[in-house]
Amino acid sequence: MSIKEGEKVEIRPESITEAPGSIQKGDVDLKNNIEVLTPPDGGRGWFVILGSFLVSFYKKNKTILKRRLTYFICNSWGVFLRQYKQIYPGQMAQLSWIGSICVALFFILGPINQLVIRTMGYRYMLITGTILCTAALILASFAKEVWHLFLTQGLLFGVGASFVWFPCIGAPQQWFNHHRGLAVGLAMSGSGIGGLVVSNICQAAIENIGYRWALRIVGIMCFALIGSATLLVRPFGTIQQTGGSAKGVISWYLFKNPRFTILFIHGLITTFGYMTPFFLLPSHAEALNLDPWVGTNLSAIMSAVNAGARICTGYMGDKFGRFNSLFICTFLAGVCCLAIWVNATNEATIWVFSVLYGFFGGGYIALFPTVQPQVVGLENIAPAVGLLYFTNLFGYMFGTPIASAIINRFTPPDYKYAAVWAGCMVIGGALFAGWLRVTQAGFKLVRV
């Protein structure tokens, strides 16, 4: 369908009720001749969700930072780290940064996401990511020095994962409208389930055949899972329909949309505190002299709760409004830090906090992408996703080190100040989510 000057443009009613203000007269660019997209809410979209699930299943094991160590590296990385600190004694500080660099690079393509998609398309981005991630792990199995690990498990894997992440977070948003919350929640729930499974596979392999073969096995799993996603994940519509209208490399024009700017700030602030409990809670349990089983399993339990929460809160967003749900989940996650984690001095309190924070934190992760199409429209989703998730780079790189530095200013280390830091950051982000909700529907108690 071509849109010519003077012709009527039919806009579906749900586009107005679910995204008030996102489609305005000035937003229809008659010069671009772009066909309006209508997400099918199913069909091939469910295969896209499956592919994204497989990627997030694996991704979790490279992004949850280590337990019981200063900067906390990911579940599977943490398993290997225990081996590395024995092989490379006295180099813990250098090893600690490998996981952080890897996490940060997951989002490195963000500002140029639109350009990369235009140049390569989803299929070749995923193929590139599959090759780079698999090669990173296989090459790491031959590492002899710490800098070899920097180049492989840190730099190469992080860049490869960036080629995988953006197609698999962008595609589910494009294929669904009414059921977008549930669809994105299902796609992202793979990360919680993966956190329970792959790290245990790594540990079993290390104990039986050594860490080098464990790396190779994980590399083969990476090839199989991301390779499957390459066959399943496809965009809905063409890059001309979803790639925005930027004339330069970076889509600065998006910041002319006040709602996008608010959402950008929301993501930037929240990520500085969001992962801190996941990173620091196991070591907090150890500092309280709790049973070692508690610290060992906290991350696993939080991953399981987080996975279920992403599905439940995604569905809740579809029923009660995604902007409403995003604000509520983010705000309550921050309240949990200030009201429960600050006062956590025994095992019962630690468990209560881990379950509640895992649930509301999972809600934030699932709902953040579901509101993006309603803020910018599907026609701008590719550049918007790139810029919005680029904010994660700063929060994930520096948020927990700041919290760790605050903790270590006291003797003995006092974790309640890390809880205050995390709570303030998350609630600060929630206030912007609330502001965004008000810009959509004012202060009326309506579904939005």
Automatic annotation (TrEMBL):
Topology relative to the membrane: Multi-pass membrane protein
GO cellular component terms, A-Z: membrane
PROSITE patterns: MFS
CDD domains according to UniProt: MFS_MCT_SLC16
Subcellular location(s) of the protein: Membrane
Ranges that cross the membrane: 97-117, 124-143, 149-169, 181-201, 213-233, 260-281, 323-342, 348-368, 380-398, 418-438
Keywords: Membrane, Transmembrane, Transmembrane helix
Highest taxon of the lineage: Eukaryota
Record keyword Transmembrane present: yes
Major subcellular site: membrane
Keyword flag Cell inner membrane: no
Domain Major facilitator superfamily (MFS) profile: 259-448
UniProt feature coiled coil, ranges: none
GO molecular function annotations of the record: transmembrane transporter activity
Family of this protein: Belongs to the major facilitator superfamily. Monocarboxylate porter (TC 2.A.1.13) family.
Protein's name in the database: Major facilitator superfamily (MFS) profile domain-containing protein
